[in-house]
């Protein structure tokens, strides 16, 4: 099953859309999330970090394809050699919060770790319930032991927060202007990096 999960830097789900077939293209699921009456909302001028499975388009900032990206590739003293690699390294560091929240979710809820024999409709409800309960636990419990255990396994990352409201992005459509936006952001990050 394909699950579109949107979260904030505090490891809380902002939006969850479960139920799409696992073979569905990420972009198709995202378009559905934006088209739903109570779906995902992205304020114009703001963006969510997305992986390379999505188009780089207004409201959704994707990494450069064909460049090193995954955090594992930056270990052992490997340093970015280009603007695009530097951008991808920072992007992967910030986007890692999504990997962490799903890791915590799977640690906490055994029912979503394995293939289920429940119907897709029931599994959809279970995934949504697990996401809601995850947020409730974060809200009500001062210290989340699953989060602490997961944090001990992987270094903490600090992505940018995203605000939603007002004039909203209405679709997923790659454009030259959004590519120029990403390029300008990458060059600015490269020129202002520390330790150069």
TrEMBL record:
GO cellular component annotations of the record: nucleus
**Which segments constitute the DDE Tnp4 domain?**
1-135
Task: Show the Pfam families listed in the entry.
Answer: DDE_Tnp_4
InterPro entries xrefs? HARBI1-like, HARBI1_dom
Answer whether the UniProt record assigns the keyword Nucleus to this protein: yes
| Keywords recorded for this protein, A-Z | Hydrolase, Metal-binding, Nuclease, Nucleus
Cofactor entry: a divalent metal cation
Write out the GO MF terms.
Answer: hydrolase activity; metal ion binding; nuclease activity
Which cell locations does it reside in? Nucleus
**Organism of provenance:** Linum trigynum
Spell out the protein name for this chain: DDE Tnp4 domain-containing protein
| Family affiliation | Belongs to the HARBI1 family.
Q: Does the keyword NADP apply?
A: no
